[in-house]
Amino acid sequence: MWYFLYNIALVVGAPLIVVALFLKKRCRRGFAQRVGLTLPQVSDPQGEVLWVHAVSMGEVLAIVSFVSAIHKVYPELKIIISTVTETGRESVENRLMGIAQHCYLPLDWSWTVRRFIRHVRPKSFIVIETELWPNLLKELHAKGVSAVLVNGRLSTRSFHRYLRVRSFVKEVLSCFNLCLVQSDRDAQRMIELGADPEIVHRTGNMKFDTELAGLDGRSKPVTFQFLGLHPYEVLVVAGSTHPKEEGVLLASYKEILSIHSNVVLLMAPRHIERSDEVVETIESFGFEAVRRSTKEQNLKRSIPQNGKARVIVLDTRGELASVYALAKVTFVGGTFVPVGGHNLLEPASWGKPVLFGPFTDHCQEIANLLLESEGGKKVHDANEMASLIVSILDDQKLACRMGRSARQVVLENQGVVKRNVEFLQLLLRSLA
After folding, report:
1. Which of 24, 29, 242, 251 reaches 20 to 30 Å from 105, CA-CA?
2. Residues 188 and 307 in one domain
3. How many domains does the chain have?
4. pLDDT digits (tens, 9 = 90+) for 219-266
């Protein structure tokens, strides 16, 4: 019954789904593949296919080490990685070239997923971070394709939403052969929703094992010079910011400047298509906005002639992780607004003090670890943030201590990729 109602809703909503998909810039390129008009050139009748789904750039970056490890163990497997966004595609092609091929995930209409599966013929399917697509999982199960959830997590909002249709979710979860989740909380929630406790295992968050750009030996790190910064200036980086967060950050920045005039704020909006909006907000506070993408401005390395303090807008993709390395203090967005928070581990991996707001549901375990180690601090408003940043800037020992503690949190929780690959090996052996 649930599947019937779900599919009726998909059919009725199809025109809206198509229009919404087409209007989203970051999803437009893969439109034809997603609606089933074209098929990817990834089928290999001579070999076995492992299909991995990672929704966007963040999920792709989290699985680079995991996919590389699988390729090392099973070099004969043809690996394809599906995403729904253009940034996801770029990440696959940039970070996993020669290991995996990219395609776009078909929309969850039964006819599109059935055609896609027939074409690709996967041996196994791996989904990253709890993307539950009922028709896709049902069709895979019907064809005897093993399905594995890796790095699974359930936010409080998602969990309560799924509880309303628990019988349906239980049926969907029954299609999985293995569920590898990030935390004990996630494991308990999966079981409460109906997953078989025998297949649910807490292995940790693979982001602890992520190789950051600049630390991986392949990427060219961003430099002070290329950001237009002087050696005597101090950089504060606010990453993955959302609407309403920028105003809090800018108000805090004003307070900081009254004490430390050499501080420069860099803001990286979560979605770079918001860059124009962010620039307007910066200018409304009386600051000069400098776009990272505008090289002529960045390479001048000069203080604005009008005497205004400047804020750098990181309106380029793939550089935030490297930019954190240049910061004295960092803030991770999605935490001043009820989004749930983004990747706290990127600045922590560089050994930087990590600040975040009260909304950390998506990264609660990591936030708790950072708070316990004192490598991270929770702030609730602009004044508290300004006061804390000034304290860190005034006390080099405090800055170093927080940075070391943050880095230690990362080091002490690595090894997740190895555990996940071992579970996958056991599954594949049992199915052989």
Report:
1. 242
2. no
3. 2
4. 566 788 888 899 999 999 999 999 999 999 999 999 999 999 999 999
**Chain mean position to CA 63:** 10
- What are the CB-based long-range contacts (under 8 Å, 24+) for 252-259? 252/382, 252/383, 252/385, 252/386, 252/389, 253/285, 253/287, 253/309, 253/311, 253/386, 254/285, 255/382, 255/383, 255/386, 255/387, 255/390, 256/386, 256/389, 256/390, 256/393, 257/309, 259/390
Strand order in the sheet with 146-152: 100-104, 78-83, 49-53, 122-128, 146-152, 178-181, 200-202
Q: At what angle do helices 245-257 and 275-284 cross, to 10 degrees?
A: 40
Please compute the mean of the pLDDT values over residues 370-378 and round it to a whole number. Answer: 98
Q: What pLDDT, on the 0 to 100 scale, is given for residue 35?
A: 85
User: 16 in a domain, yes or no?
Assistant: no
Q: Average pLDDT in the 63-70 region?
A: 95
What is the token pair recorded at 70?
Answer: 């699988």
The identity of residue 318, as a single letter, is G
Q: Quick one: which of 400, 272, 381, 259 has its CA closest to 329?
A: 400
Verify that 378 and 264 share a domain, yes or no.
yes
Residue with tokens 């670890």: 369
| pTM as predicted | 0.86
Domain containing residue 57: CATH number: 3.40.50.11720
Query: Which residue shows structure tokens 């599906």?
Result: 82
Tokens of 137: 């999982």
Is the same domain home to 358 and 426? no
| Whether residues 86 and 120 fall in one domain | yes
CATH number at residue 385: 3.40.50.2000
Give the structural domain span for 390: 225-412
Residue from 208, 154, 207, 161 nearest 183 by CA: 154
* Spatial distance between the Cα atoms of 129 and 183, rounded to a whole number of angstroms: 12
Query: Helical H runs in 223-363?
Result: 245-257, 275-284, 295-298, 320-324, 345-349
- pLDDT for res 11: 83
